[in-house]
Amino acid sequence: MGGVFALLLLVGSVVAWIVSGVNASKKGGPAGLKFFFINLGACIALIGLLYVFIVVPALDCSGFLCGLGAFLIFLLIGGLAFLIWPLILLAVIPAKFKGFDKNSRKEDSDLIDNL
Asked: Using CA atoms, how far apart are residues 81 and 75, in angstroms rounded to an integer?
C-alpha cells in the first residue's frame, strides 16, 4: 500500500510541475517559461544538495541498515520539495505575470474600422 501511495505522490508532483509549466507559458510567455525552468533547475539543485549533505556522509558506514535513516530522511525532504515547489509556483506565477497578454496586439481590421 505504501508503494501505491508513493507512486501517486510521484505522479501528482510530475502533473503539478507540468501544470505549473503550462500556466507559466500562458501567463508569462517566454519570460514565464524562463522563470519556470529556473525554478525547476533550482528544485533539482536543492535535491542534489540534500543528497550531498544527508546521504553522502552516511555512505561510509558498514553496519546493517546504518544509512537507512539518512536515506529515508532524504527521500522525505526531497519528495516534499519536489511536490510543494510547483504548488507554490501555481500561486506565484499569476501574480508575477499579470500584464502579459499574447492577444494584446490589435488586428488590422480593428485599425481600419477605427479610421
From this structure: 10
- Give the pTM: 0.76
- For residues 57 and 73, the answer to whether their CB atoms sit within 8 Å is no
CA–CA separation, 54 and 67 (whole Å):
10
H-state helical runs in the chain: 2-50, 68-96, 108-114
User: Could you read off the pLDDT of 7-65 as tens digits, one per residue?
Assistant: 888 899 999 999 999 999 888 888 889 999 999 999 999 999 999 999 998 888 888 88
- CA 106 to CA 103: how far, in whole Å? 8
Cell numbers describing residue 65: 541498515
Nearest alpha-carbon partner for 23 in 104, 101, 94: 94
Q: Can you list the pairs that 72-79 forms with residues at least 24 positions away whose Cβ atoms lie under 8 Å?
A: 74/50, 77/50, 78/47, 78/50, 78/51, 79/9, 79/10, 79/13
